[in-house]
Amino acid sequence: MVNPKYHVFVCTSCRINGTQKGFCHSKGSVDLVQRFMEEIDDKDLSGEVMVTNTGCFGICDKGPVVVIYPEGTWYGNVTEDDVETIVESHLVGGEKVKELLI
Amino acid sequence: MVNPKYHVFVCTSCRINGTQKGFCHSKGSVDLVQRFMEEIDDKDLSGEVMVTNTGCFGICDKGPVVVIYPEGTWYGNVTEDDVETIVESHLVGGEKVKELLI
Predict the structure, then answer these.
(1) Cα of B32 to nearest chain A Cα, Å
(2) Which of A99, A100, B27, B67 has the fewest Cβ atoms surrounding its Cβ within 10 A?
């Protein structure tokens, strides 16, 4: 699939960025990738949503960081419980999840 | 920097995807990240362009794969020599590099 309707990028970096504490990988972001894939599969969105893990976005203190294009929406401190909300609200409903915006 | 004007994603995955031969990492994509960063620095674009390495996009036979958002432009078989062209044409001039589109 090229040019998905939504492309979800999840930082799974284990880079320690400067003096910031922790990093996305240590805060469970690999599990986030898995949860996004499950939700997307459950909701039959695999034809229009792509999920890709990434290296460091440089804002580790706000991690786990999830970025959704083409809108350029940046979510921070994302937990596994937030994934269903992001998928239902943003990817299905087209409404950003305001409380997670950074 | 959140919400860059252009966000360049470069696959640096060493995943072997199915039966496809080779993968972006083995085709020099880590050097591409470096070249993008140098070009962006040279052209004083660091305030508006972000470069991030990624995991597998699933089209390894077309790698190295570079994706630029927010437009959702997919480039394939990108070489180090192509980086300056992409930066000048696409990121500075706003014109996609047609011969690299996949």
Answers:
(1) 14
(2) A99
